[in-house]
C-alpha cells in the first residue's frame, strides 16, 4: 500500500505545467473524500497554487508520466494539443505470450464503452457508438523463460482502456489485467501464478465481452484452456485465495514511458521519460 505522506515525483516543472510520475494503484482523480493523485498533488503544492487540471489521465492500475496544468491557460493549450494529436505518448507493457512480427505495426480497431460499466469492447465500425482506436506497436524483447513479450505502444487516439483491450483482443493480454483476459501474473521468480479473489469479494458475473475475450484468448493458447474459459463467467474471481500462490494486485504491467508535447508557456518541444523502469512483476 502507498504511503500517503510520500511526495509525488516531479519529472519536469515548467511553472505553468508539470510532468509527474503517477504511481500504480491510485486513481488520477476520484470522488470527494477518496485519495487520488489530484488530492496528493493539492497537498504537495498547497503553498504554490490552488489550481490543478488534468488534460489526460492514466487508469488506476497504470503507472508513469502524466501531464498536469497548474494554470488555466496552460490547461487550455495542453487540451488543444491532445485534441489535435500534437502530443506523443509511448507506453511499455509486458504481455502474455510471444508476439510475432506480423502482429506488430499499426493497429486499427473500433471500440465503444459498455453502458453503465467501467469497461470497453471491440465492435464493428458500423456499430452504434463505435469510435476508431489506433496504436503503433513494436517489440522490445521476448522472454522465452516466462513466455512473455515487452511491447512499446504509441496510441494515436485516446479511447477508454485502448491499449488494454487491443492487446487482449489479439491474444496477448497485459500481465495482471484480469479485466481483459490477463488472468495470470508473474511473481518475483518470474513464474506465472493465478489471481484469486479477496476473502470478502462476492461472486459476480463479468460482462459478456470480457468473457468472450477470455474465451478467445484461451482458444489461441489451447483447447483445454478454451474449455475452462467457456465453462465459467469469472473464473479468475471465483478461485479461492490460497496463501502462497494467489494474491490481489493493484497494478498491471503497463506504464506510460514517455510523453512529448509543447511547453504551454513558450512552445518549446519537450520530451519527458519515466524515472522508473516498468517492473517485471506485479
Summarize the structure in short.
The chain is α+β, with helices and mostly antiparallel strands and 282 residues long. The chain has helices at 37-44, 72-83, 162-169, 208-219, 223-231, 235-238; strands at 9-13, 17-22, 63-69, 88-96, 105-113, 120-122, 131-143, 148-155, 184-186, 192-194, 254-262, 269-273. The strands form 2 sheets. Strands 1, 2, 3, 4, 5, 6, 7, 8, 11 and 12 form a 10-stranded mixed beta sheet that branches. A two-stranded antiparallel ribbon has the order 9-10.
Strand content: 25-35%
Secondary-structure element string: EEHEHEEEEEHEEHHHEE
Shape: globular
Rg (C-alpha, Å): 19 Å
Mean pLDDT score:
80
Number of domains: 2
User: Runs with pLDDT <50, length 5+?
Assistant: 194-212, 217-248
Q: Please give the share of residues in helix.
A: 10-25%
Helical region count?
A: 6
Strand count:
12
Class derived from helix and strand content: alpha+beta
Largest sheet: 10 strands, mixed
N- to C-terminal distance: 13 Å
Explain how this protein is built.
There is one protein chain. With 282 residues, the protein is of the alpha+beta class. The chain has 2 domains: 9-90 and 257-273, 2-Layer Sandwich (Pseudouridine synthase); 92-238, no CATH class. The chain is 19% helix and 28% strand. The chain has 6 helices and 12 strands. The protein has helices at residues 37-44, 72-83, 162-169, 208-219, 223-231, 235-238; strands at residues 9-13, 17-22, 63-69, 88-96, 105-113, 120-122, 131-143, 148-155, 184-186, 192-194, 254-262, 269-273. Strands 1, 2, 3, 4, 5, 6, 7, 8, 11 and 12 form a 10-stranded mixed beta sheet that branches. The two termini are 13 Å apart. 33% of the residues are buried.
